[in-house]
Amino acid sequence: MARWILKSSILLYFLVVSKSIDECPKNCVCKHSSQRDGPDWIKVRCGDIVPVNSLDELDLLNIASEIVQLNLTRNRLTAFTPKIQFVALQKLDISKNQLTALYNNQFIEVPNLRRLDISGNNIKHIDVLSFANLRHLERLKLNQNEINTITKGTFKSLMALKQLDISNNPLTCDCDLLWLLGWIQKTSLKLMSNPKCASPATFKGIALRKLQIGIDIHCKSPAGSRELPVIKLEPNQSQVVFEGDTLKLVCTAPSLLDNFDVGDSQGSSYIEWLWLDSDPKNHFDEIEISNRFSIDSGLLISSLKISTLNRNHTGIWSCRLNSTQGNYSEGLMLIVISDATKYCPILTTTNNKGTYMWPRTVVNYTVTIPCESIQLNRDVSQQQAAHFCSPSGDWIHLNTSQCAYISETTKILEQFSKVNLSLTKGSIYESAKHFKNYTSNLKIFRDVMDLEYTIQTIENYVHYLPEEKELGGILMDVLNNVIELSRNYLEEADLEYNILRKIINLSEHIAEFTTAPIIHKSNIAVEEFPVKQEVFAGMTCTWYINSLNSSDRLFYCITSNRPVLSGMQDRIIEASIQIPASLFYQLQQQDIVLDRSMQRILIGMFSNGKLFPVYKKYSGLDITTAVVGVKLANFLVTNLTEPIYVMLRLPPRAIVENTIMIPVWWNATSNEGKGNWSSEGCELSHEVQDNIVFHCKQLGYYGLLQNVSNTGIVRIGAKFRLSHPAIYVGSFILFLSLFIVILTYCICYMSIQMPKKAKHSLVNMWIAVVLLIFVYVFGIYQTEDLQLCQIIGLTLHYFTLCTLFWMCVGLTTMYKRLSKNDNTIELQDDELPSDQPIQKPILGLYLIGWGVALMVCGISGAVNMKEYAAHTHCFLSSTPALSALFIPAVVLLLILSALFLLIRCAIYSSDANGHLSEGTQVTENVDLDLLEPSFPNPDHTSVRSSSTKTRSSEVEDAEHAPATQLKAYTIFLILYILTWFSCALATVKPFRFQYEEDIFSIIYAILATVLGAFTLFFYCIARNDIRTQWLLLHNWIKRKGVCFRSRNISDAAQNIPQIQIQPLPLPPAGNSPPAEIHITSRSSSRSSSHTKSNSNNSNVLKAAVNLNGSTMEEPHGARINNVNLVVLHRQQYRTNNTITNFIENPANTAQVFYNPYQSTVARRFFKKQRQHMMKRNNLTMRKCTQSDSASIISSKHITDNSSIDQSIFGTNSKVNNTNIHVEHVCKTKHRNPNVLSDSHEEISLNNVPIEKTDVKC
C-alpha cells in the first residue's frame, strides 16, 4: 500500500512538473505553490538568461490567472503595459529596468497587487493617476530613481498602503512636495529609508520628515495645490461670548512667492476683514484693524479688535487674502449672548443613521456632531451630522447624509441595491433568490430606507427579465411579501420615496415579461393577455380564495363576458372583473387610434388597498375589499358606454350594515401625479350571495370605499343564517332522547343495577353529546361576532373530544372489572379474607373525561384561536388547525379499538375457562358472601361474618352481559362518528354539488334519530329495572303518596316464600342420632332453549338471603344465628304480582348484588368445594325422579359437629361476587330438563336423606 502511494505521488509530481514545463513561457522559470484548500499558484521569474525588452515577448496568457508573483528585475523594459489581466498577481518586481515615467492607469491590469517594486529605474515623472485601482497595495518602492517632486493626490487611491520608500531621489523640498508630510501623518504611513532633500540649497541634505511647514518653510498650500493657500485664523473655532466682552482676531497668510529665497518683498498681496461678506467698518465704528508684513517669516499678519461686544456682532467673521493669483479666505462664527438671545432646547433625534443629542443652542446656528457610525474608508472629519437652530428657536434641517447607517439590515440592503449585476450575469437568478430569502422576514423592515433599498434592488433586477424568465417569480414573491407590511409603514415610505406607486408599476412591468402562474401570489395576481381587437369576445377574470386557507388563491380568466356567480370546489370568489366584448369598438368611437397589431390587456388583483392610499377628499374612508383592475397599454380610457362590471366579496358585516359602500376607481393622474380614488362614473348594481356588483365607465383599478373610523377589528365574515330544517329536526329528536335517558338515570340512580363507574361514564358521555348538539344548533353560524364565533368553535371542539374521552373512561372501567374478576385469587381453607380494598375516588374519572379535553383545547386555543372563526361557520377552518381535532380524535379511536379488543378477549377468556351449570345459573345471582355463615370464635361468645360487604360500585350489570354492553358501545360510537361527519359535511359543503346541503342534512337527521332511539331503547326500554321504576313512577303519580322504594326495602304487607333452614340442635357427644334438616322450596322455571345463555344475562336478582332468629348451639357455646336461604323464582321477580322487595335484617343483613359472569371464580370455588366434600362429606346425595321442578332438599344425617365447617354453608373460603346453586342431580327422560321451567310445581321432599351433594360451575 505504501509503495502504491509512493508511486502515485511520484506520478503526480511528474504530471505537475510536465504541466509547468508545458505552460511556462520561454525564457522564464515557473514554480508551483500548492495550496491545501485551493488551486495551485505559480511564481514566475523571467530574463535570467536573455534580458526581456518588452512584455510582448512573454507568452503568459495560459497561466495569467494563476500567477501570484512576477519577477522581471534586471531586464530592459522601458514601460510596463500588460495586455492581459493578472487577477491573482500579488507581487510585482520591475526594478532595475529602463522605465522613465509612470502614466495614468499604468497598473490597472493588476488590481489585486500588494507589493510593487519599481526601484532602480530612471523615473522622473509620475502622473497623478498612475496608481489608480491599486486599492490593496501595501508596499511601494520608488527609491533610486530621478524623482524631483510628487503631485498631490498621487497616492490617494492607495488606501491600504503601509510602507513607502522614495529614498535616493533628487527631491525638491518645496510646497509641491511637502504635502506628503501631512498625508503621511494622517494615514499613519511608514516612510522607509529616511529620504533627504536635494534642493533648494537651504534644505539640501536635510531629512524630509524634519521640515516643518510655517517654521522652516511657508507654503502656498499644505497640499501642494495653488487653489487653497494657507490662511491661519486665531481663534480657529467658532466663538460664543457674552455681551460687553472684548474680542481680538488674528489672521496670518503667506505672501504669494514663486520661490522661497529670503529677501523677497511682500508683492501685491494683502488681507481684508469681512462680516457677513461685507466690510465691518460700514456697520460698526468701534472696530480696530491693523496690518503688517513679517520679513523674517514672509507672512502677512492682520488683526481685528472689538473692544465692546453686543448682540449685533453675532455672525460670520472672516479674513480674506487678496492677490493677483486669486482670493482665499478663512472664517469663524461669532455668537454674542445677551438677555434677549433665543435658544433651541436640548433635543434627541433617532433615525437610521444613529441617535444624536443636540445641546441647547443659540438661534441661527448650525450644530455639528460626529457620526455615530464611522466608515474607515472615508475622511473622518467629513463624517458629521448637522442640525440647524432656526431664528424661531426650532431645530430644522437635520442632515445625516454624511453618516453611515447603523442598522445592519439597512447596510445589507444598501449593498444589494449597489451590486453591479452586469458583472454577475451568470448568477443573477441565484443572487435574486438570496435577496428574496433575506427579505422574507418582515421583522427586518424598521426604517423606510430599508423598503427604499428593496425597491431599488428590484428595479435593478427588472432590467434582466427578458433574459431571465424565471426571475419574475422571485421578484413577485418579494413584492407579495412587501404588501404584508403595516399600512402606516407603507404610507410613511410612500411620503418620502413614492414607494406605493413604484410597487404597482413594478408588478405591471414584471407581468409584461413573465408568464403565469409563477407571478400569481397570495396578495398579488397580475397577468397580461395579448388579444386581437377584431376577434375579441370579452373577458372575465376571477380571483378565487380557499375558504379554509386564505393564502391559497387561484387566478382564472376566460374569454367570455359571462359573469361568474359561484365559486369552485373549496373556493369562494374574492374578486371578479368582466370586460365587455365591445371595448375596442367603443375606443374607435372615441377616436382613440389603435394599430392593427395585437393589443395587450393587463388584469391586476390586489388582496387589499394598502397600495392605494386615500387622500384629502375621502379622508376617514378606506378600502375594505380587494382591489381589481384592468389596463390597456398606456391609454387612459374613460366614458365607456358599456361599462366594466366588477364583483368584490363583501367586507365585514359590522361595517356594511352601518355605512354606505362607495364604488370607486383609481385615477393615477390626480393629486399631483400621486393618484387618488374617484367615484365618478361608478355605480352600485346588485348583490350576489356574499358579493357586491358594481360597474364603472373607466379603465383602472376598482374597489369599495367605506367609513371605518368607528369600527374596531376588520374581519371578513358571513352573515348569520339558519341551518337546514332537517338539522333542527334531527337535533331535537336526539336531544330529547338523551335528555330522557339522562333524567331517568339521575332520578333512578340507586335502583339501576349497574356498576357505579359505568353509570357515571354513560351519563357524562350523554351530557357531552347533548351540550355539543345545543352549541352546534344555536352557534355554528354566529359569524358576525368574531370573539363569540371563536368561543363557539372552541366549545364544539371541546365537547367533541369530551364524548370520546368519556367513552374511553367507560370502556376502561369495564375492562378493569372483567380483568379483576378473571384474575381473582382463590384462598386456602385456613386463610382469612383480605381487608376491604381501598376505593378509588370517582373524581379521577371526571379529571380524565372533562379535564384532558380541556387541556387539549386550551393549548389549541392559545396557538390557533383565530382559526376557530372561519368565514362561513364557527369552527376550525384551515387544514393545519384541524389537526388539533383530528390528531387527538384518531388517538382516542385507536385507544377505543384497543379497549374493544381487550374486553372481547377478556369475555372470551372468561367463557373458555369454564361455564356454570344449568342448575348453577338458576341461582347464580346469590352472592357467595351471603351463603357463608359466621364462624365460631374461641375468644368471643359472638360470631362475626368474615365476608366483605359487597359495594354497589362492584355490582355487575344485571340486565346486559358484557358482550352486549360492548356491542352497544360499538354501535353508539359508529353512529356518533357518522352523525358528526354528516353534520360537518352539511355545514362546510366541501363537494360543491347541487343539493349537497340538503342531502347531508337529511342524512344527519336520520342518523341523529337512530342514535337517540338506540340509546333510549337499549339503556332504558330494554332494561327491566328501568321499566320497573317507570311503572312505580306511574303508580306514584296516580296515588301521589307512594314514594320510590329500593330493592332492599321490605314490604310488610307481602308474604315472601322462604326456604326455612330449621335450627339444628347440637347433638351430644358420642353416637347420638343426627338431627334432621328440613328444607322446603318453592320455585318455578321457564322452558327455553336459551336458558344457559342470553336469558340469564338480562335477569335481575333472583335469590336473597335473610339472616333471622333461629339458633343452634355449639360445643363452646357459640351460636350461628339467622341462617335462611331464600330462592326466588325469576318469573315471580319480573311480574308485578310477585314480590319485588326483600326483607332484610337492618343490623345483620349483607348487601346482595348480581354478578353472573364471574364463572371462572365460581368454577374454582366449586372445584375446591368438591375436593373437600369428597374427603369429608357427611351428606349423601340421592337421585330424584323430578325433572322440571326445583328440588326440596332435606338432610337428616349430620355425623358430627365439624360438618358445619365442612359443608358448603360452613366453609371459610372467600370468593367475592360469585353466585352458587346447590341442587340434586336428577336424571330424567325429559329431552330438555330445565330447572327454570314455568310449571310452578311445589314439591316437598321432606325426610329424604341426602347422600351426595353435587355442585356444578
UniProtKB/TrEMBL annotation:
GO terms for molecular function: G protein-coupled receptor activity. GO terms for cellular component: plasma membrane. One of its GO terms (biological process) is cell surface receptor signaling pathway. It comes from the Eukaryota. SMART domains: IG, LRR_TYP, LRRCT. Coiled coil: none annotated. Residues 544-712 form the GAIN-B domain. Residues 318-407, 723-1023 form the G-protein coupled receptors family 2 profile domain. It is a multi-pass membrane protein. Pfam families: 7tm_2, GAIN_ADGRA3, GPS, LRR_8. InterPro entries: Adhesion_GPCR_A, Cys-rich_flank_reg_C, GAIN_ADGRA2/3, GAIN_B, GAIN_dom_sf, GPCR_2-like_7TM, GPCR_2_extracell_dom_sf, GPCR_2_extracellular_dom. Residues 934-956, 1072-1099 are annotated as: Disordered. It is found in: Membrane. Residues 229-329 form the Ig-like domain. Belongs to the G-protein coupled receptor 2 family. Adhesion G-protein coupled receptor (ADGR) subfamily. This is Adhesion G protein-coupled receptor A3. It comes from Ignelater luminosus.
